Amino acid sequence: MEPNPGTIDLSEVTLTFSLFPGTSLPDTVGEMRHHIMIGNIGSAVTVSLDDAFTAEGIDIAGLALLATVARSEDGSSITTKDSLGKVTTHTEDEFLALQTKWLGPFVDGIGVARGYLSFSAIDGDGLRRTHKIPFQTPVRLYNENRSGVTRYPSFAYTAALRTSGTDYVVRVPISHELKTGESDRFTLSLGVRRSSRHRLVVSVRDIARTTTATQEIDLAVFLPFSVTSVLDSRLPKDDA
Fold it and tell me: Pairing with 201, which of 21, 75, 217, 231 sits 20 to 30 Å away (CA)?
């Protein structure tokens, strides 16, 4: 999924990347091996990476089965379930052989993706420019029993940033009750009333007054005049 949380459409969106087995890059990276033309993005678009994974020697159908693995209590057998609900039982040796076949060169079930996302968009000065955003991220090919999968957000909070000012604090009250061993997830959306640039740190303080903070975030936002004029007519002025 390639989301576009901004207020403008992105054009000529292209995803260019390579996949490497293991947890680190080789000494020689070479040219990017995969190029996916996405096109234009208004709000969001779903992008399939199946062809790229298949080209790297990964069995896509096998990966889907790995996500359904269940082990017997004594560890003597392993079951997988296909998309039709058919359950197949394997011995440990049989399963390891299938796992090796399905994962191809990614024997540990993890790799590194390195590349960039390029697109064109109209900048704050009204001119269309091409942008390129590099990325490098670990890729886990499967997750047995979906252990540790991120929970869906239980609540969405919002906060407004000023368009001018320094060293100010925006407080967002949050309220979540967690029992021992439970986890939770929530989102925080930041809003602005006009094109601006912000340097900020987001921190969360729990009931024990323990604070967890991000590194400094450099956030540039562009809003067209048609949007800012509506916001100015409906919202109170920024605090001094």
Answer: 231
